[in-house]
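Cross-posting from the modeling subforum.

Setting up a comparison between two proteins and wanted a second pair of eyes on the formatting. Protein 1 (sequence, then structure tokens):
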Amino acid sequence: MLSNTPAAELMQLILALNKTEKRYFRLYASQRLQRGESIYLQLYDHLIAQGEWSEGSIRAAFAGKRFLSQLVVARTRLQELILASLRDYDHAFNYHLEFSRRMDEIELLYRRRHFDLCERLVRTALRKAAELDLPLESLQLMEWAMRLERQKGGFGSEGRLSQLHAQHAQMLAKITLESHLRKCYDALSVYLPQRASKVGDRSQKIASLMQDSILHTPIAQMAFDAQLIHTYIHQFHARILGDAMGITIANLRIVEIWESRPARIRYGEEQYFAALVNLADSTWQSDSAAVRIPVIAKLKRIAARFKQIQQQQIARILLLDLSQMIFEDAWLEADLLVPKIKAQLQDFGPRIPASNRQGLIGNVITAKFYLEKWADALYWATELETEVGPDAAAQWKNLIRIARWVAWYTLGDHDKLEKALQQQRKTQPTDFIHSYFIHLLQAQREQQEISIIESLRIAVEGQIKQEPTTHLTLLHTWTTAKIHGIPITAAEHIRKNRL
């Protein structure tokens, strides 16, 4: 089935539903379908079971049913029903839908001349719009308030209208300011590092954009969304310059903006959660552990409370938590987290972004390596190899290779190690590490073995200064542990103290 056909689009919509949305759809549809329309639910169940739109399968399953003569109509009706259920499901989390419905109610009451009730709804909605800091919705509601005031007339009406006009102008100025900021945001996003290759010389253009007077407007004059856009522009600029601390400062400000409006968090749980995750992520580059630790703690507290947090976000918390444990040399705590990570990957693997899955498995391998749990390290190395595939990035290939070589050597599985070394010689003859392991396999005495390991440690130490990668760090720590006869965790502690 072609990916851009109406049938394919319906299947994409159905297959993207989570368990709660599926359950809600069945409840919503059963309450709203008329007599004789239950066939749409049956069609939905069939498509869920099949996982694809196959007209032949549908005609075989529903042979003799009248709707088959108008299958396109049935498909359209089912799609409309799913969209309606999602709109209803999202109502509690979407202020746009909430205000849209309220506007419909206000217009309905006004047409029927229920002016007192209409005015009460306008006042309530205006308070809500002010609480959420929504200038566009406030503007529309003020227009209704002015319309009602004109209709009412009488003593004092002129003063009230004058006040409403002043507020209306204030909201209009905020909307204009936000529009200008969005234009700057889009213009600067072109120069982000991942898109930079598509543009020419950018330094003068970027400098010109950042000198725009709109970016020097006091943030207090901006509405909530404009404040976020303003701060993202500065974050973009820091990313373009490679300013790690600037990125962290901007991300911290984004979180502060969210937390300044708790009412907005209810409607934007995912965005707030993502802002916290981005802040924690950015602290690794800026070396801001003092910021990262409380943010991770906050993420863990709110994850269970927020209704909209998806499993891929839970995986990001696990990745941050595990990374912080490794950073703090909390190896046993990291090991205790592994069963939860394994369950998460098994239950929600496809929903978790590939980079997060790979990061989680890579960190598990690191933890198992430092704890010298070699059988586990081999298991997770295989998991990572399956995850990344034959075209894996060098960082993952190297991590898998070193974890396996050290594990096989330590466990005495020399046949597997020898085969792997022979393969490495064929594919990467210039690799310096494999030659040391070949010599280790040939070593006859312990003293000779230690001498080879010492030579490997010196070679790795020289390389690690140019390329401080995970696999070289693991290898350096292992060789240090072997030379001094100490646990790898102790050798890692010595390495960090030297740094």
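Protein 2 (same layout):
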Amino acid sequence: MMRIIICLISLIFFNGFLPVKPVHAQSNEINITENAATKEEKKRQKLIRDMKELVRVAQDAGFTAEELKDITIEVDGETVNVVEYLKQEEMKKQQQASDKTDMPSRSYITVQDVTKELIEKEYKEITDLRNNLILSGEKQE
């Protein structure tokens, strides 16, 4: 009986009744998505370098600040203002840098922290109530 079950299991898995992806095929899919993300990031970095070069050349040519603000280019069928795009990228870069530096300073609340805070708050409330009762008793006399 056991041999029949083993034979059936081997037939199901090894003869293709149930498709099983090999591990290397799964890793290839992951690498493809990582490569696509890397290519997109490289493309964005190249665009930023080209925009900075364009602004530098325009400044060297004697463009005024107003004329620099009016420089636009077409990226993937969309018109993009170069100066505004560079400002947004700089803000994103600063935000990412601040997120990285903020990470170690973040602390997570534990059950012990909540319990300690509740006990301290309860003690303070009881003390305040007792003081109010004592003060109100003195006023009545």
